[in-house]
Amino acid sequence: MSDRKAGVYLCKGCGIGDAVDMDAIEQVAVSEMKAPLCRQHDALCSDEGLKVIQDDIDGGEINQAIIAACSHRVMTDRFQFNGTQVVRANLREQVIWCHPANDEDTQMLAADQVRMGIAQAAKFDTPQPWTEGDFNRRIMVVGGGVTGLSAAREASLTGHEVLLIERADSLGGWAAKWSRRLPHRPPYRDPQDNDLGALVSEVEGDSKITVMTGALVTRTEGMPGKFTVEITRGGAAVLETVGAIVVATGWRPYDANKLGHLGYGASPDVVTGVELEEMLANGGIRRKSDGQAPKTVAFVQCAGSRDPEHLPYCSSVCCGVSIKQALLLVRSDPDAMAYIVFDELRTPGTAEEFYRQAQEAGVVFIKGKVKSVGADLTVTVDDALLGEEVPMTGLDMVVLATGMVPNSTNPDAEAEADEFQEQLKADINPAVPIPSAGFANGGEGEEPQEGFPWPWKDKTPTGGSILNLQYRQGPHIPMLADGFSDSHYICFPYETRRTGIYTCGPVRRPMGMAESADDAAGAVLKAIQAIGNAAEGAAVHPRAGDLSFPKIGYDICTKCRRCTVECPFGAIDEEEDGKPVVNITRCRRCGTCMGACPVRTIGFDNYNVQMISDMISAVEIPDEFAEKPRILILACENDAYPALDMAGINRHQYSAYVRTIPVRCLGSVSMLWVSTAIERGYDGAMLLGCKSGDDYQCHFVKGSAIAKERMSKVGETLKSMMLEEDRVISEEVSIADSARVADLIDRFAGKIGELDANPFKGF
Amino acid sequence: MTANMAATIPGQSARKYDLGFARWVYENIEGGDKLSMCMQCGVCSGSCPLGTEMDYGPRKLFMMVRAGMKDAVLKANTMYNCTSCYSCVVRCPRGVPVQYILQDLGRAAARMGYQEAKTTDNARFAKAFIWSTRKFGRTDERLFTFKYYLSFGLGEAIKKAMANMSIAIKLVKTKRMHLGMPHRIKGTKDLNAILAKAAEIEKREQGI
Fold this sequence. Notes:
A: FAD/NAD(P)-binding domain, 5 domains, five-stranded parallel β-sheet, 19 helices, B: Fumarate Reductase Iron-sulfur Protein, Chain B, domain 2, 2 domains, about 65% helix
């Protein structure tokens, strides 16, 4: 924008006017920063205050409003002027609420906040959304089990066309094999009829749903709104275009042949829960050895689950399934006895009613770990409540409640090419900040902490990729150590690390039929949002609605590949010669590419290296004799910046020597900013980001880990400038850390105070 | 395993664990059908004023029923130490009638000929109690106590009586125990007829 007319609006409300000398601030804005217009108001967010700004806009006085009032996180609906850029300077939460009133340092901080706002506005352009070409609105659902069927139906009900791909020759998946299902309606006490057949008929009769059975996805390329998928069916491949993808590939039972210690294979009458379920659906429970109906049956819970040697996690449904099977057994044969041997019975929510029902029916529950199951069906239990080993003898049948293995890979397909195996491992290992490509640490991340279940430490999951993504970062959807697709369980459960591709059902975490159906609805809603936003050129979670996107200056680009390697979402592909190509609708706008770029030629219209550099430089640095150090804080806008706002709300006081700039993600922090700060005379810099590692809280998955990795290089730079390494630190802050963040700042400020002033001051 | 428990199982029976026992208890013991609801919280054992005197508290005894430890359960002194205060019944969150179950387990043990049902302290005491009731229609503290002492043999009875002499004198002085002829109710015969009828009903219910 060539013709900028920025107006500065100073709000005196909420006590700002009482704590800070606003006339002095106005002087800074007008005389020093040459703002063409500056006005003060008692309460800018009031109708009168807004009218002041609107009148200036209407009168052509300004086309940018710099509002120095509260945090940019609040009053967003008030300070919104159709088409006019708004820049916010935070004088309330981070100035007057956490620093003493009418204090020299508080005044200097307030002035610097306004300086930074004016500098930001000078480089701030309204982003123009990218909406080139056609955007497809069809949703592809991969997997035709209960989750996939539910997803297809939900999507169809919202008016979207659906392409449903199923590997097997018929729809239904595992759930089609069950005779009865766990209760999911009040009173939650009896096994319910399996109503999956009705869902299959609904899907098959739905004109919006195209079903392809016996089909596999052999190639996926493109981006949300523009995916091209190759589907192979009986040797013939067809190409289809879809807007978003829902992966509902479900699960498979854990291989009981690995459970020799639980007697599987030693006796034909040791069966798995799935085998028993098949018996129930085909005429009733019979011993394999003699075809007789068993009278005494023991169910062994956690068969292979919650066992570091097998599946380290709880498969969540097995307790309910065993209760269901035991109930069906004792109800069909009043003489039969069922014993459920459990370590911890997990019957969350309404499943507790079901558990009670089984107790009332006389099913015996024994708490203890099963040590062994013999070929003569003797189950030896280490009974936790008796404190002794109890041999259970005289059993007719033993049922092993085996767990769920996620179908995050297709076990029948060929494994990924070698070049991607390492990438897959790096994606699985959350401790590795940057997948190996010869830049960071060659893929040798720090070892996972001791005791952390790590079944795939040295191997990748069997089988090949589900979608065969034609992405720079490999054909897989990144998964976790236990094989489930990676997502944030609580905050954003369906978001994989591949935009526009959403996982749901047991491929995401173990769950039963009712939960899978709900999960499918959630993932479909995400897919619909992705399609809609892609067509409008807007980002999806977590910067939903952001219209900016990374632009690469190809004339400067050295094709170093750092952006293509470091993008946490695999959004940037490479051409043959290494030229990076941004798939814009795959991008989540975190800016990690911008932080990665060594020649700083990646930027957004409203967020770029130069803009933040200018903001850093706009701060007035007192000379060394003033003994007022300056500390730059680059705070992640997702957690650290809100924590700082919250520190203000809670009136936690901290050093007024800090100058805070919100960043989209620590991953977007260019090391130029840190060196600019040091060269400008700041005495220290703090990077505040989210928790990294296997329990990462980073909204962009690897941003904070990558920042940490880059920070390790800054120390060397500081040393070469003859400065102390600990002038620059990075800390992990959660949104709830308002008290801690104030303390962290004070301690760092204390440390900086002990060091000599930055000798670059005044240069 | 406590030392106490080892003492109650002198000779190990052929089958220490019998998976059918839980079902037998569910079907044959009064209140046993509710035993399946036990969730092993231990409120019964924690509430029991005599828990410390028991080989196992009710919670553990019930878990032993589930594990099929028939002999160990029926040899336990738990049932005879219950004073029917009903604290456990009142407090059980799952509505298990603990007291009924204990009482009927004790009766079952006696019926099945478990010696412990006759030789434990409480069994002897109960026997002396019922002797006095049948004979006088009420408890005569002096004769009933001595009858209980006598169940240990004459020498032991005199020893026990002498040891408690000072208490006896105090009881006499405060007129809590008298030295004359035992008081008798008028309808001893009628009471015995009632008791006989009760025994008859019980036998009929047990199908013996």
